[in-house]
């Protein structure tokens, strides 16, 4: 695989190669100090304790790459770093230490952790009479880099035009303080504008391991196939012969979870059954180490980069129908309103009686009296007839509605943003169409997954108060909330930011139900998402204040991830904690180890989210082969531009008009008259202004921009 070849190329690199860089670019004599050397670790430690230095994560402005910022620990004003020299070789996302000097002299003195992969895609430009080429990254937050011609393709100097549309990836492997030029390695990915080279560039840039699983890893898998559950393992588990089924998207192949709902005389017995991945992934072996490094499956538009080998995630662990599978179950006795009367955790064996899609479940919910035929549904277990399955779905739907109502009455917040999805050609995997994903009643699964995650969090924290892997969600950043509150006050919108529940309630009740109000609600939802912080995994032993355990959006004191161990390594750790709490194997985990893995899972989850977003943008760029027209709504006004939410496709774009008169909260655009006898047309742009835009392809491969369309004279 190309990734392996690239890794070998990295490992073969030697310092002598870099010496040639310095000789050719800087000369053999004394070298000018371009960057300041980093402080010694001891000085950094003392400076942080004395408050002379501040640690934070570097954010580089993608539109103005000379500007960079670091958040203050007290949530006050950001620290501003002006220019590349002040950043001292740090890249976007790195955790750095800043020295507090007079404002115009703030600078980075140490890099605590290089979060940025140091890999970036871009294009090579030939420079006549130079012994190096210019590498221009597609991410403008990374400075342009000079690449020795000896590192370029062998015929690049003679035929540079042949490479004008070739996408390269460069990885910075060193960047000394006395050099303008980073030590790097370059590799060609293929033609820019093609899905696979662009996708590979994204994966490498965000350090997603997409190489084949090694022989050592594959040797950890069961050898005797087809695999069956050993009799001794069956005896150790609760054999659940209930009506149990899965509800997933039609394309899902890694089925983590199943549900059951049995009618009792006065109540219900509801079960959540999760694939027992830890039975197959032994702690500390090569498979476990690989899974811990990957930490998550990564979902692209056209494929999945799995955390585990496909034999596990699509077969032996996946809760496929009509097959005995090993699970961890949590089973409750619930009232019809969703109140928990009793709770049981344990290892179990299930046999899913049918694989339902969301569409199947939705059909059942919408037609409660209908008698479905076998032809309308996937294959099912005759021991559990269709009507039994149908009634179980209806009962789960009824309970889920009550659970959802209780959650939001109890102060939870949900900010559903428009989500773009694609239909793909099954052979070419190219986009045939796109649509906005609709949240429907068949998403009832979510309520029971939340209930299981909350129950598991309390269980493992009760048994392991120093070792529990939990998931917190900090409250939104106070400074950004204050700014948003001021904007809302100016617009006459009464949003209550005092708590998650108050925000949710006022978002629903403040606006009407007409089409314009619906669009305003989408814009407001995006605006309210900006101050929100990311949820984080952490080890309970690392936080002394239990208030820091809280999940802001869910408004619960304890939360974790238990329900997706096939695709999330955090859930694997939680399963091991749960097993140990049930008189299972003795844990070999330490608080520091759990915290280190938690931080790694956070980084990988953030990267996976960004990769999915870039994959979506990539496919939309492919799909957008001709101008696409849509209504849009303004969601922010700047000095020289304004941001819009394109309502038909759920994408955000920035528009740079040519003729404008700017104010603090609005822009007045001046349109030339269409005929000489008419006066110029003025168009006022402010938040919530409805405009017409056209999405058009840029010259850059698979990129698109939004162009503002001339307003109708009647509307202006």
Automatic annotation (TrEMBL):
GO biological process: one example: polyuridylation-dependent mRNA catabolic process
Annotated function: 3'-5'-exoribonuclease that specifically recognizes RNAs polyuridylated at their 3' end and mediates their degradation. Component of an exosome-independent RNA degradation pathway that mediates degradation of both mRNAs and miRNAs that have been polyuridylated by a terminal uridylyltransferase. Essential for correct mitosis, and negatively regulates cell proliferation.
Residue span(s) of domain RNB: 237-584
Main localisation: cytoplasm
Listed cofactors: Mg(2+); Mn(2+)
Domains as described in the record: Specifically recognizes and binds polyuridylated RNAs via 3 RNA-binding regions (named U-zone 1, U-zone 2 and U-zone 3) that form an open funnel on one face of the catalytic domain, allowing RNA to navigate a path to the active site.
EC numbers on record: 3.1.13.-
Pfam families cross-referenced by the UniProt entry: Dis3l2_C_term, OB_Dis3, RNB, Rrp44_CSD1
UniProt record similarity statement: Belongs to the RNR ribonuclease family. DIS3L2 subfamily.
Lineage of source species: Eukaryota, Metazoa, Chordata, Craniata, Vertebrata
SMART domains recorded: RNB
Keyword Magnesium set for record: yes
Annotated source species: Periophthalmus magnuspinnatus
Gene Ontology MF terms: 3'-5'-RNA exonuclease activity; metal ion binding; poly(U) RNA binding
Residues annotated as site: Important for catalytic activity: 256
Keywords from the UniProt entry: Cell cycle, Cell division, Cytoplasm, Exonuclease, Hydrolase, Magnesium, Manganese, Metal-binding, Mitosis, Nuclease, RNA-binding
Record protein name field: DIS3-like exonuclease 2
């Amino acid at each position: 695989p190309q990734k392996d070849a690239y890794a070998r190329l990295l490992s073969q690199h030697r310092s002598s190669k870099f010496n040639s860089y310095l000789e050719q670019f800087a000369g053999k004599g004394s070298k000018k100090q371009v960057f300041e050397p980093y402080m010694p670790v001891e000085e950094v430690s003392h400076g942080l304790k004395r408050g002379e230095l501040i640690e934070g994560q570097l954010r580089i402005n993608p539109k103005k790459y000379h500007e960079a910022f670091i958040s203050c620990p007290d949530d006050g004003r950001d620290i501003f770093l002006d220019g590349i020299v002040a950043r001292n070789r740090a890249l976007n996302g790195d955790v750095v230490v800043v020295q507090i000097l007079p404002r115009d002299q703030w600078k980075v003195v140490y890099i605590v952790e290089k979060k940025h992969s140091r890999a970036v895609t871009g294009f090579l430009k030939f420079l006549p009479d130079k012994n190096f080429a210019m590498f221009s990254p597609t991410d403008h937050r990374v400075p342009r880099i000079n690449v020795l011609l000896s590192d370029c393709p062998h015929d690049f100097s003679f035929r540079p035009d042949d490479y004008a549309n070739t996408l390269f990836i460069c990885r910075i492997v060193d960047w000394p303080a006395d050099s303008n030029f980073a030590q790097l390695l370059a590799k060609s990915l293929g033609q820019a504008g093609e899905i696979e080279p662009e996708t590979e560039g994204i994966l490498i840039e965000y350090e997603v391991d997409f190489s084949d699983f090694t022989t050592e890893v594959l040797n950890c898998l069961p050898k005797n196939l087809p695999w069956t559950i050993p009799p001794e393992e069956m005896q150790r588990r609760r054999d659940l012969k209930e009506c149990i089924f899965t509800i997933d998207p039609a394309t899902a192949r890694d089925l983590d979870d199943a549900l059951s709902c049995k009618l009792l005389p006065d109540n219900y017995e509801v079960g959540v059954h999760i694939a027992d991945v830890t039975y197959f992934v032994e702690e500390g072996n090569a498979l476990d180490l690989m899974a811990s490094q990957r930490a998550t499956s990564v979902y692209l538009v056209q494929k999945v980069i799995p955390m585990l080998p496909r034999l596990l995630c699509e077969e032996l662990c996946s809760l496929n129908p009509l097959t005995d599978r090993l699970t961890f179950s949590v089973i409750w006795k619930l009232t019809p309103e969703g109140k928990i009367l009793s709770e049981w955790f344990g290892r179990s064996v299930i046999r899913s009686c049918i694989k339902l899609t969301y569409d199947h479940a939705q059909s059942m919910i919408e037609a409660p009296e209908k008698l479905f035929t076998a032809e309308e549904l996937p294959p099912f277990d005759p021991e559990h007839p269709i009507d039994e399955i149908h009634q179980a779905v209806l009962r789960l739907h009824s309970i889920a509605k009550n659970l959802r109502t209780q959650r939001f009455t109890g102060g939870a917040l949900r900010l559903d943003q428009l989500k773009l999805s694609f239909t793909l050609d099954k052979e070419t995997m190219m986009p045939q169409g796109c649509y906005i994903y609709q949240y429907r009643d068949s998403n009832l699964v979510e309520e029971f997954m939340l209930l299981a995650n909350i129950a598991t969090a309390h269980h493992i924290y009760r048994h392991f108060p120093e070792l529990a892997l939990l998931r917190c969600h900090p409250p939104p950043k106070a400074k950004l909330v204050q700014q948003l509150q001021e904007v809302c006050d100016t617009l006459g919108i009464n949003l209550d930011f005092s708590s998650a529940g108050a925000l949710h309630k006022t978002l629903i009740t403040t606006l009407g139900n007409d089409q314009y109000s619906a669009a305003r609600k989408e814009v407001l939802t995006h605006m309210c998402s900006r101050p929100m912080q990311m949820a984080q995994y952490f080890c309970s032993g690392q936080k002394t204040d239990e208030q820091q355990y809280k999940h802001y959006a869910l408004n619960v004191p304890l939360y974790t991830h238990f329900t997706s161990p096939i695709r999330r390594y955090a859930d694997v750790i939680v399963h091991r904690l749960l097993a140990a709490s049930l008189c299972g194997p003795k844990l070999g985990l330490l608080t520091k180890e759990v915290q280190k893995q938690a931080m790694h899972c956070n980084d990988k989850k953030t990267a996976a989210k960004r990769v999915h977003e870039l994959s979506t943008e990539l496919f939309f760029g492919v799909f957008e082969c001709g101008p696409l027209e849509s209504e849009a709504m303004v969601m922010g006004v700047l000095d020289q531009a304004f941001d819009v939410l394109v309502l038909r496709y759920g994408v955000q774009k920035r528009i740079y008009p040519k003729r404008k008169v700017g104010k603090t909260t609005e822009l007045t655009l001046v349109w030339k008259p269409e005929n000489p006898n008419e006066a110029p047309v003025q168009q006022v742009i402010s938040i919530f202004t409805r405009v017409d835009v056209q999405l058009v392809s840029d010259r850059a491969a698979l990129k698109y921009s939004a162009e503002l369309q001339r307003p109708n004279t009647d509307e202006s």
